[in-house]
Amino acid sequence: MTELLDGLLQASVWLALAALVVAAARPVLLRLGGAALAYRSWWVLPLMLVVPYLPLPRLPITEIEPVMVMASALRAPAVPSDASQWPLLLLAVWLLGAVAMAGLSWRAQRRFEHALGELQLRGDGSWQASGDPGLPALVGLWKPRIVVGPDFEQRFSPAEQDLILRHEHSHRRHGDPWANAALAALRCVFWFHPLLPWVARRFLRDQELACDARTVDPHPALRRLYANALLKAQLVHPVAPMACHWRSQPMLKERIAMLKEHKRNALPWMAGQVLVVGLCVGLGTVAWASQGSAAAAVSGMGQVDMPADRGATARMMPPPSYPKIAFEQSIVGKVVLQVNVDADGKATSVRVLEATPAGIFDAASVAAAEQWTFEPAIKNGKAVASALKIPVTFAMDDDEPAR
Description:
This protein is α+β, with helices and mostly antiparallel strands. It is built from 14 helices and 14 strands. The strands form 4 sheets. Strands 1, 2, 9, 10 and 14 form a 5-stranded mixed beta sheet that branches. Helix 6 crosses helix 9.
């Protein structure tokens, strides 16, 4: 339970860092490669959420003497009696928020699809709706359909209709409905994140700008016609979370301003591609190595499996507090921890390998182990990272009264 909360917190930090980096790099990317390149830079976000959980190189594990925690040696528990309920309470709040956000998104999507009314297939492969909750749009996830309003022919000229349909076809070819679905899932999981509303708005704007560029750049002479089509369609409508809307009134000025720019030449565009790849690789490497300094501290190439000159040893290992609920019910047990120790002798990460009974002594053991310090392992004359397997036994001693 605490591992899930810790994972959410760490992922939130990486999400914030990725969003700030994308925001800082966006002006450069726009100059180098235009809107399409800026939109592609958003790949950094899912990468930063996945990479930190990829496995690190295995460290040699050394087992040291077990830690014994005797209930008779206790004073008052160091943790308040209701402290163990906080992780459960926080998890419940997060889950309620995620379910609520998912419900709101599903309701908005269903309301939009219901307002379309009856759909009729057109000769150009698109569908014409009897209602207009915000059309034209690309609707659907598994088999997305281009849906236009009942007055599509009356409102737009044939040339404008062709541009609009090209725009929506471009959304479908590049998988933008799936990107919007991933964004909706992200908003459900990280509903509490203060930067996520900005991320969502900026991502959707860059998506539309990129689609505009893909549609118009091959035909520069049609820019004015494309801008006229945008102006005709700007009405206020509710939007669906997973639909690609042609109308986007809040960003109308930005879209028209982008149309005035000339297409980038090949060399800066290529430089922009290299910059995006560099952003992804650089930030991904930092996030991967941040799981602990173990990846950086594993000694030289080809030497991982060689025995250490000296394994890590305990320096200060104050025992965990005996959980009050276990003390009151005379529960005994054992927790086996894996503690990763860096070259400075600090515990960089703690993981529960075994716990009997499960969930009773885990939190107390991990909290104590995170404060332990060690003499680092020595290999080839240098301090290196290592991993320790430490059993922690919780026992009752009836011979001496608890204090």
